[in-house]
């Protein structure tokens, strides 16, 4: 019975270690649990079956662990679970002549300090300078800079 428990600890420890490496990297607790289980399994072999079987269990455990990790990396396991999609979207550019200083509009969302506005019938993102502007407030353009529109509350 002790042999089965020891083997179960070694196999479960290897499973946790591979889970840490390939499925949920960065959680370290799973890897630590796997390492502790494998070390405990090898320790039980040393204490219950002597040093010769202990050395054998340690060597086999190390070899199987290394082979499993290298085999998994070479076999493309990492490529099957890794995200390979690339973001191909672009920022919506505001043409320099679309909005002019003094154009008026209305806020669609709160500007804290950025939000959505509608100016000249065009819905776009705008920024307030320092002040928070509530939704459905009248605004006017005070500055345009590259791809940013700066507005203030219309008085």
Structure overview:
Helix content is 46%, strand content 20%. The protein is of the alpha+beta class. It folds into two domains: 80 residues; 50 residues, OB fold (Dihydrolipoamide Acetyltransferase, E2P) (Beta Barrel). It has a five-stranded mixed beta barrel with strand order 1-2-3-5-4. The chain is rod-shaped.
Report the count of strand segments.
5
Low-pLDDT regions: none
The largest sheet, given as strand count, sense and whether it forms a barrel, is: 5 strands, mixed, barrel
- What is the 3D form? rod-shaped
How are the strands of the biggest sheet laid out side by side? 1-2-3-5-4
List its traits:
155 residues, alpha+beta, OB fold (Dihydrolipoamide Acetyltransferase, E2P), 2 domains, 5-stranded mixed β-barrel, 46% helix, rod-shaped
Fold topology:
Elements: H1 2-23, H2 29-49, H3 51-74, H4 77-81, E1 104-107, E2 114-119, E3 122-128, E4 138-145, E5 148-153
Parallel strand pairs: 3-5
Antiparallel strand pairs: 1-2, 1-4, 2-3, 4-5
